[in-house]
Amino acid sequence: MSFVTGIGDWARRSLRFASMALFVTGIVLILVTGVSLVASLNADASDTLPEGRTGEEFSAEIAEIDSVTGFEQAVAEEIELNGLDGLELAVFVDDLMRKKFLHGYAEMSWHDNWVLAIVHRIVPDKEFMGYLDPHDVVRHDYGICNQQAILFQHLMSSLGFSVGSVRFSLPGLGHFASATKIDGEWYLFDSNFEPPYDRRDPAVLANLLKKDQRVISSLYGQEAAVAVHNGDITLSDIDQFPATRGRLVQRMSLALSRFAGLVITGIGYLLVRKTAIKQRHGDVAKEQPEL
Questions:
Q1: How far is CA 253 from CA 43, 127, 185, 249, 280, in A?
Q2: Per-residue pLDDT band at 256 (split at 50, 70, 90)
Q3: Is 285 helix (H, G, I), strand (E, B) or coil?
Q4: DSSP state, 141?
Q5: Cβ within 8 Å of residue 133, ≥6 positions away
Q6: Distance from C-alpha of 231 to C-alpha of 173, rounded to nearest angstrom
Q7: Per-residue pLDDT tens over the stretch 91-106
Q8: Half-sphere exposure of 83 toward its Cβ, with a 13 Å CA cutoff?
Q9: pTM: predicted TM-score of the whole model, two decimal places
């Protein structure tokens, strides 16, 4: 019996130690969350604009629009004033996008999501920290191709258009643009590269998807045209958010950043109390035979 009793005492001590460790870990995480929130409040909200690409159609006035609602209001005003619809409306939205953004990677700081920042340290080759939600993308005046495309597709979807993602998987050119379906035809829109082409011509996208070297060269350069033989250009994610898994990871890690400390501390506290109660009951049980 003494052996069994010893095992039981060891198990209770181990559980008590684990409970205390969990409680302390939760407290540490709460402190980390507090520090990150203070750092976030004290962070400089102003953006340092990147140089962008030569010839970008950037407008400081349009760049002041920093919300999806603001863009929707600007589009609604243009529709009311000039009666735009269909292809002309899509071109207008693309014009807004070109004037809103410079090319640059808009990414969150560690204090915005410290759990994701740790994951990014472990897997640095993945672009975990780049904003993927259109409501976050629009707060900045710069973004890379997928970020600008995410906002463009969100705006066009809200206007009732069918949208898709044009993905370039070429040696030397990993790129992301958008397509919009209007009157049965698909049209290319690339607010990031801003290549010179007739945005009102559906043949541009059709020939691009056929790997037409002449079209690819005119849009993205001769190197891309040569590389197309060893890569692919596809139209995908029709009427679907193009970065579902990435956005889910960001949202889940953000929830952990904000609430993991509280949850772990609560669990640790309950376990500490439970082990303390069991310890008292065990002590009482040991004393009873002696009485």
A1: 21, 14, 39, 6, 39
A2: confident
A3: helix
A4: S
A5: 150, 247, 250
A6: 9
A7: 999 999 999 999 999 9
A8: 0
A9: 0.81
